[in-house]
From TrEMBL, chain A:
Its cofactor is [2Fe-2S] cluster. This is Ubiquinol-cytochrome c reductase iron-sulfur subunit. PROSITE patterns: RIESKE, TAT. Component of the ubiquinol-cytochrome c reductase complex (complex III or cytochrome b-c1 complex), which is a respiratory chain that generates an electrochemical potential coupled to ATP synthesis. The gene is petA. It is an enzyme of class 7 (translocase). It comes from Parvibaculum sedimenti.
Automatic annotation (TrEMBL), chain B:
One of its GO terms (cellular component) is respiratory chain complex III. Residues 228-408 form the Cytochrome b/b6 C-terminal region profile domain. Its cofactor is heme b; heme. This is Cytochrome b. It is a multi-pass membrane protein. Heme b b566 binds at H110, H211. Heme b b562 binds at H96, H197.
Amino acid sequence: MAEIHAAEPTRRDFLYVATGAFAAVGAAAAVWPLIDQMNPDASVLALASIEVDISKIPVGQEITIKWRGKPVFIRHRSEDEIKAAESVDVAELRDPQTDDVRLVKGPNGQLEKQWLVLIGICTHLGCVPLAYKGEFNGYFCPCHGSVYDTSGRIRKGPAPLNLEVPPYKFVSDSKILIG
Amino acid sequence: MSGHSTYNPSNGFTRWLDARLPILRLGHDTAVSYPVPKNLNYWWTFGGVLTFCLGVQIITGIVLAMHYIPQTELAFRSVESIMRDVNYGWLLRYIHANGASMFFIAVYIHMFRGLYYGSYKAPREVLWILGCLIYLLMMATAFFGYVLPWGQMSFWGATVITNLFGAIPLVGESLRTWLWGGFAVGDPTLNRFFSLHYLFPFLIAGVVILHIWALHVTGQNNPAGVEVKNKDQDTVPFTPYATVKDAFGLSLFVILFAYFVFFNPNGLGDVENYVVANALKTPPHIVPEWYLLPFYAILRAVPDKLAGVVLMFGAIAVLFVLPWLDTSKVRSARFRPLYKQFFWIHLAVCLALGWCGAQSPDTILIHVGDGGFTVTHFARILASYYFLHFIVLFPLLGLIEKTKPLPESISASVLGTKN
């Protein structure tokens, strides 16, 4: 053993290591296309953003549209709902966010408090929550019982995060562009 | 255990073949002369039943694949056309769909038999682990298959299960997108699930061969749990003894199978899956197929997303290490008075977990004031016991239990000199 321990690495050792390393890199390079082909392809990635006319949604109601294969909720909130969302003590929330940061500004530079836009996918395991249900009259997920408030923030149940707000902006008073 | 081969080629051709590819010898040694303990009871016939189930699923599946279209716009319709238009399509599909349930009934009996008689203990650890692997592959295959009809339960089942992987820290999100091939369950997902659903049964068949190989190295366990000591006294040849017993057991099993296929073909399914998948509307009450319910109950019992996923997979993972958790030298529960009781408790807990998995989590079982004791609370107690059973009781019982005296041999146990 002592001899081996003291022995200098030989040229042959170097060749073994170099050959092994080359083979490993080659194998990884060959496998990568087989793995990466499962990722979203160009046609999926190219899904365009969509424009939605929101002028026909009455106060206190919401519509669901499909964007990138996912449901998006557009909710015309009432004064009571806005008040309920704003009066929450943010420090007590599981995923602390004020109501304001979950909204965007309209064409006139004012925060559009009456419009709440959310990706309608429960952050627990991906079910679509039901609107105007649950303790806070926001959303209730029928799968595992997560409860969200009128700002789409998680309040009860197993979900870890608030309902996601998709990227969107107002293009006019009556239209928003999602994506 | 198999000893040396007793195959004796009877004519010129078989002698010629035997010197080149001894495949007839392999068949003879495996299924004819192979010695089986003579005290095997009917719980030992489920290996044969399971082989039958795998065969049925592969044959009906290959035929169904000739008519099925793995495309979201057409999948549901193609399944309906199998049911209405394809000659005997209804029969093939009902056999395949109920066959999955029958497969799981058989595998659960097979597994609990192994737990009762200590079949996982040395020297059969590898045999047991291969079995666990088959079980895991079966669950994956069944899950992929359930997605294919593209009904509401297919879609939302796929959504919930794939989202489980999103709970993994750091890589969860990208892993989920990778599984989906998009940003939600959709066409790419359905296509790859179909491909994998076709592949996995052959992986199962491969592991089954290893499972049988390992079985034939160690020999079968038996109800007495003592090893074969004298081949002449303790064993009988596989054919005709085990062959006939297996065939009779299988006949009874096929009667049950036929009852479901012909008289109650949708009894084990969910009506919701006859509604075409809708990505914008989750059904009010989503549940997996019955054979996954206990694990689903464990998932829901945990208030934290990641912990729930970890415990659900942990409930299966713990099975792989059972041979090392059990400290008792005695295999069969016949001679383990304490373990025997806990075995039945554990079986009841597993059934109760399954029941919980099928209920709405907020259903109140015992009312106390406004709230009360809900299904979720009940499932928490049951899930705790499930893990306690394996992680605490398995090592502990072996140390404190006073086992009954073992029979001297298999032969002695059969002759009733001592049981």
